[in-house]
Known about the structure:
The complex is a heterodimer. By secondary structure, chain A is an alpha/beta fold.
Amino acid sequence: MGLTVTDLSCTRGGRLILRGLSFALGSGETLILRGPNGSGKSTLLRALAGLLPASGRMEIDGRAVGGEGRADAVAYAGHLDAIKPQLTVAENLRFWARLFGGDPGAALAAFDLGPLAERPAHLCSAGQKRRICLARLLVAPRRLWLLDEPTVALDADATGRLLRVLREHAAGGGLAIVATHVPLDLAPARELVLAAEAQTASAAGDPFLQGAWT
Amino acid sequence: MSAAGAVLARELTLAFRSGGGAGLGLAFFLIAVLLVPLGVGPEPERLAGLAAGTLWIGALLACLLSLDRIFQADQEDGSLDILALSPLPLEALVALKAVAHWLTTGLPLVAAAPLLALTLHLPAPAYPWLVASLAVGTPALSFLGAIGAAVTVGIRRGGLLLSILVLPLYLPSLIFGARAAASAAEGADPWPAFMLLGGLTLFVLALAPPAAAAALRANLR
């Protein structure tokens, strides 16, 4: 039991970014997503999060995930930190905790944000903002984590905390897909390497894009 | 319910924190309406005839000012992606954001209108109708604005485009709202225009959340 993705395809701006991608992930396993810039790592994560239209099938524990059900199963942390600069660190996390129905206390502690709790988020450094963004994963339990280059701007200590959080998530049977360019020391991890940018055009049926990538 | 309360509390907090823009609409309304006596002359009879229409046009333009930030700020910092993945349906998110916009922009306009009406020599019987028409009409302005804001969310400097898209949609509310107050000022029956204004607002309240949510879904891609 775990995550099964079958025949996932995704087109952006008339170009086929992902073609017929299939993979499976057992309970407690982490998938490290690798590939050069522009190979579709972010596209894959956004498609799995339901933020991009994609064809194919995604199942968690044998049940198809889609539409409204996705909100209860998936947590996503993309390139943008989703932090309101006018709110304090604690206020930011408290909002997400109330929205997702969880508790911000453990999230603050896991990324050592306690000392920063009352600081306005616009005074935080890039790495500190990244820690707030990652702490959001912990405010409410979600089965599948989708992380897009989570280590960007993190120092060695914070990267260690991220790995610890990922290991705990996996130990509890959680699934995670992490797109990254740095080596991550995660034991029960599998790797998926996406090929360099495919020059295949699928402009058929779109008169504006006809001949755009031939 | 807790999720809805969280979104509403967050919107109101952000509006009143620095750079949130609450009060800007009200300040614009005060200045724009006070320009009218300077422009058309201070004769009470002439101003009395213009008062209801002027106040409604002022309220409508003040409402436009802060519309573009309803979704744009959340889209720029990535919050919109996370909100779209939350247990709260996008339709509810749109409705809550429009309600927050009305509370921070529309409601202060309703409260300030009688004071400005005094400077424009609005006839006494029209006061309650002016306040009632603005109270009933301005929620429609916020909800229609939410549709425009959702359509233009991905566009850089979409504020002007948003105004051009939304202003025509405001026309029916302006016509019936200003008519209700003006009818009362002229001693005519304000009820027909007021009822149409109320019906229009109810129609917009029902239509706007799904329409804006559909636009947001299309723009997330």
